Amino acid sequence: xxxxxxxxxxxxxxxxxxxxxxxxxxxxxxxxxxxxxxxxxxxxxxxxxxxxxxxxxxxxxxxxxxxxxxxxxxxxxxxxxxxxxxxxxxxxxxxxxxxxxxxxxxxxxxxxxxxxxxxxxxxxxxxxxxxxxxxxxxxxxxxxxxxxxxxxxxxxxxxxxxxxxxxxxxxxxxxxxxxxxxxxxxxxxxxxxxxxxxxxxxxxxxxxxxxxxxxxxxxxxxxxxxxxxxxxxxxxxxxxxxxxxxxxxxxxxxxxxxxxxxxxxxxxxxxxxxxxxxxxxxxxxxxxxxxxxxxxxxxxxxxxxxxxxxxxxxxxxxxxxxxxxxxxxxxxxxxxxxxxxxxxxxxxxxxxxxxxxxxxxxxxxxxxxxxxxxxxxxxxxxxxxxx
Length: 387
Fold this sequence. Notes:
The chain is of the alpha/beta class. The chain has 2 domains: 36-209 and 299-385, Alpha/Beta hydrolase fold, catalytic domain (Rossmann fold, 3-Layer(aba) Sandwich), CATH 3.40.50; 221-291, no CATH class. Helix content is 34%, strand content 19%. The chain has helices at 4-22, 107-113, 145-163, 175-186, 226-239, 252-261, 282-289, 308-317, 333-341, 361-366, 370-385; strands at 36-44, 47-58, 66-74, 85-89, 117-122, 168-173, 191-197, 216-218, 295-297, 321-326, 351-356. Strand 6, helix 4 and strand 7 form a beta-alpha-beta unit. Helix 3 crosses helix 4, helix 5 (226-239) crosses helix 6 (252-261) and helix 5 (226-239) packs across helix 7. The relative contact order is 0.13.
């Protein structure tokens, strides 16, 4: 038998190792000198000629202080001299993951298969584990619009150096449109053109400070919690015409259609979030919605980062704009998209706004007709304004 002292030491070591295993993989991060490549490149089943490369930049010491880039282009190696360079800025709770992953419903794959050098951003929110409790989100108190703008600038610097382009195109969806206008106001010299997918510059005044104990908006609600939401998306993707998680619906598809059509709050409850089956398909919506990140910094709900000085700089930028507006959220929504599109001061011939009648928010991004009415015009706009 082992001496009692040795046995106590062995038990102590085992307990300590078990304790370490329960800790998060990274309690702190070491900032990197810019973006570094991640993992192996891969292609897509529906776009086998397109390759995706991924990059990550550690921006601070918190485990959450990271940003990422997804790079899609034709070929097994990144293009040496790409002609059309685009950075996509996702909306609230969204990230740069290609979803859905087919050409008809993916702006990234559509543009990449047509020769564009497409980049998409992961905000810091992508690195917050969904199991994190509200008390563990204090880091998000400082995640302002300006901080995200500095992250976007880091991404733009990397892309410009990588592609040898002094200016690039920005594409934004929803709050990503706010971010692209803000970035253009701060760095107009880096922007060749803007494609605004159903978003605008808010005119509301700042609201003050958020609640002291509220750091992150949870994408889950009181009824459709984060876990229930995830389960619904999984069921729709696996078998849309199979049983629904809520018995009053005949199928999982019908259940999700009800959820997105009746989504209240900012979306208005009348097909504002999406309007399936007329304008979109439940399976494609589920493929997109399941990729959402759980939390978004509450502080941004209380901000308006567009100072008079920034708006003046934006107006002097003369950056061309192509904008698309859904109609189901609110009657005034399309006019807000159009007004913002003219705020860069570009000539009338360089600003175009398309209203998508009967469409909800997500129908713009991955709707039944997005390929023809959004993606194709976006490609033509980029080609027209490339210099």
